Amino acid sequence: MYDAFPEEKVIGVYRMTTPCLLLRDLDVIKHIMIKDFDSFVDRGVEFSKSGLGMNLFHADGDTWRVLRNRFTPIFTSGKLKNMLYLMLGRGDIFVNYINEICNKRPTELETHSLVQKYTLATISACAFGIDLDSFTPENMKTLETVDKLIFTSSYVIELDYMYPGILKKLNSSLFPKKVTDFFDGLVKTVVKLRDGMPTNRKDFMDLLLELKQQDKITGPKKQENEKEKIVELTESLIAAQAFVFYAAGYETSATTMSFLLYELAKNPDVQEKAYEEIDTTLKKYNGEMTYEMLNELKYLENIVAETLRKYPLVEPLQRNAAIDYKIPGTEVTVKKGQTVLISPFGIHNDEKYYKNPEKFDPERFNPENSKERHPCAYLPFGVGPRNCIGMRFAKLQSHVCIAKLLSNFRVTPSKKTMDRMQFDPKRPIMGPHNGVYLTFVPRKGGKRATGAPRCSTTPMGISNTRGTADALPCSFNFSILQIARSHGWQMVWGARTSGPEESLFTVPEGLQPMAVLLRRFFITKNFNYWKNIRVIGPKPVPLFGNIITSTLRRKNIAEVMQKIYLEYPEEKIVGVFRLTTPTLLIRDLEVIKHVMIKDFDSFSDRGVSFSKDGLGANLFHADTDIWRVLRNQFTPIFTSGKLKNMIHLLNDRGDKFLREVNNICLQKNEHEIHSLIQRYTMATISACAFGLDFDAMADKMEMFNKIDKIIFSLSYAREIDMLFPGILKMFNSTIFSVELRYFFEDLVKTVINERDGKPSNRKDFMDLVLELREKGEIKGARRSDEDIETTLELSDSIIAAQAFVFYAAGYETSATTMSFMLYELAKNQNIQEKLIKEIDDVLYRHNGDITYEAITDMIYMERVFDETLRKYPLVDPIQRRAQVDYTIPNTNVVIKKGQKVFVSTMGIQHDPKYYPNPEIFDPERFSPEKVKDRHPCAYMPFGIGPRNCIGMRFAKVQSRICITKLLSKFRVEPSKNTQEVMQFDPKRVLIGPKNGIYLNLISRNV
Hints:
Blueprint: E1 10-15, E2 18-23, H1 26-35, H2 61-71, H3 77-102, E3 107-110, H4 111-128, H5 137-151, H6 156-162, H7 166-169, H8 177-193, H9 204-212, E4 216-218, E5 230-232, H10 235-266, H11 268-284, H12 291-295, H13 298-310, E6 317-320, E7 325-326, E8 333-334, E9 339-342, H14 344-348, H15 367-370, H16 391-408, E10 409-413, E11 437-442, E12 455-456, E13 460-464, E14 469-472, E15 489-490, E16 494-497, E17 502-504, H17 512-524, H18 529-532, H19 548-551, H20 557-567, E18 573-578, E19 581-586, H21 589-598, H22 624-634, H23 640-665, E20 670-672, H24 673-690, H25 697-712, H26 717-723, H27 727-730, H28 738-754, H29 765-773, E21 777-779, E22 791-793, H30 796-827, H31 829-845, H32 852-856, H33 859-871, E23 878-881, E24 886-887, E25 894-895, E26 900-903, H34 905-909, H35 928-931, H36 952-967, E27 970-974, E28 998-1003
Parallel strand pairs: 2-9, 19-26
Antiparallel strand pairs: 1-2, 3-11, 4-5, 6-9, 7-8, 10-11, 12-16, 13-14, 13-15, 16-17, 18-19, 20-28, 21-22, 23-26, 24-25, 27-28
Helix pairs in contact: 3-4, 3-16, 4-10, 8-10, 10-13, 10-16, 11-13, 23-24, 23-36, 24-30, 28-30, 30-33, 30-36, 31-33
């Protein structure tokens, strides 16, 4: 019927004597299933909702909302991880069972009934704690009997089509009494065996028993004045949920995997590619099938998706109108109580959405192919709020089974294999008619060996013709080329394996000219990129592009980008090369406004691709979907109210810091200010982030200084990514050391354990995070109704990543900013005197107390702070990666998806066009009358747009308290070692002073 009316949005059909509307138009489907969901909440089969009828799939609107709200957390990634060992155990038993049948020979097997044994065993273990240690007929008999009762069609539903509502009037159920009795008895037995309490199995029954301890459960209210719906969590209700979990997790997964194996047998090239992915990923994880390993099987995920496209099991999707509803874009009104139908099979096999739909092609679900597709063109799990709650479980169960099967067997067509799949007309869901027969061919050696040598890194180095060498330390799990500058330096290309032999790749003398040409091609192949699209920019140096002085650690990258920025004053954009990678430097403020604000969704990632495990999942580096969740949930942590609660911590550490400064000033006046201020920021961030009390800061500095060097010293990881874009992510490598990860994970675990996993009364960062942690999962804001809501489990690892970035941002950036600020005050005594007067006056008005209101009153302090960050913007350049092909406004230049754009904050903030005499330190630039006439993108020390610095307020409060306390007791003056012109450290990630900042601290004697 769907195919017969290709031009129609809706089609009128009859189910028996009942008129129904078949929806064809995807935008109409989107309205029904998502946008106007409240008008079509119910599935529309009316029968007695007692007993098993109270299950999540069939429950009516109000009851469904309660159940869905409370059961959704059961299917989080964290809960599924806890069930994985059950799936893996059954998977091993399953593989052994097939091995015994095959006895090392190719053997024809009926795949559907075979895979059913695995799904029966896993669902029995994960739902009820029934451990089947073998697939003997005795173990399977009872469960297979129940399966026949559930999945064989009856005429009960057809009776409801002929006489709508008759089942409900007669208080009749869809489910045979034998099925109800079976699940009621099973649940009662399990509950009794567990004494009504959760055990440590972490299976579905455990999770339901955790809920049962509440006796009653409630759901979210749609409106403030709506009465809260309450559902009593009885054993009967638990049995209903256990039933639907069993029904959905057993047969649907078995059927999907049968179809999948059928297609792999018919498409050996696809099968081989899947096998290679599984084999490679298993080796990477030392043969262990972990949750993370399974998540990396992207091609297998594509295969599952394509299988469900070609064979969507639940057909048709059905909804009942809760009100009279006019179909958008038509004059048709669906009356309250009428049913609408959707044919996933029709849509999934429509040439309009899937070319050559009969072809099995997993590449349809590559990200680039999927992103252009309408969200309602793929509906195997339904769509909208009432989609399949167990989708993640089904995928994980299937991934485990297929990964284990393909690791041990190859499947090929047998003499009984159908040329074209036929479907069983007697089943309520789509299934194979007369089974799926395939030949299972054992792979030689069974499970693949995983102990092959792994590549490790030779240090990247530069050796000159005099025989000396500079080692550039870096650490990756893959071999890299050792490349050196040809200007008086030897080229060294090396790699090393974990075996005893070390090899250095040398080129035979006769082939050296060819090798030189190949090398030159490799390191210059992109260098005409900008010229070809008529973008002006500096001439690149082979291999190093336009950042040779930065790569060789002679200048900070901010100075390099500022120089390029200032060289092209008339250009909106400048084409540059970071090593061999073309990157666009944006000069025009309106273009910057588009990229960073107006068209933010096109440039939402920062653009360093590496493993986002561990510390990589932090708010600063996270990719867009995860970033949105983190930003949405962590923004309230930095409100003025939360910062006020931290003032006592900042003041307390400030007082201790001042006493320490007093003590050291008794010995001498000259001090290295940067390292001195670091003591204050170290103490405050440790208190505000982790609740660590530094009564003896000097004893702790050595440990934290070591961490500081690891974080803020440049490594060559980014340069490797510039040479080989995406290589870090490809090899699951990170830019953070293992030592750093372990430090923060251990620190967070220690703090959580000390607080018993719950917020204390300190009101610090960890308290606020622990409040979020009690939710289990956090969610991000949806940008539109059709957006799928991203959820994130707030694990200890995720908390550690946020604690790390809070520490990194709040410690070093503030210390460096205050160091530059004191340097400028020492060089500009008139500004210092004006600031001291403001501090004294404000403190006098506030009775000497440094309150939140007191520091807010320091208007001139704010201008001094802003001018410091204008002259010394710490994070430079700002970087973004294009998510789509993007045309730069008012130009013909297209940034390709995946390419990066830069903004030179130092260049803009030292441009005389925006700041006359930019080298002069002048806080009056930030008076209201001057600020209001300035372009918003002319000042970006904290970034700009949705992805600006979330901790900006904290940094300002932290810095103002420190400067206030210092200048209330001391003046700063240049010393004999003070730099005349500030020089920046080329070996630091941020802009920082080279060789420190030396100033005299002179007591004011007040």
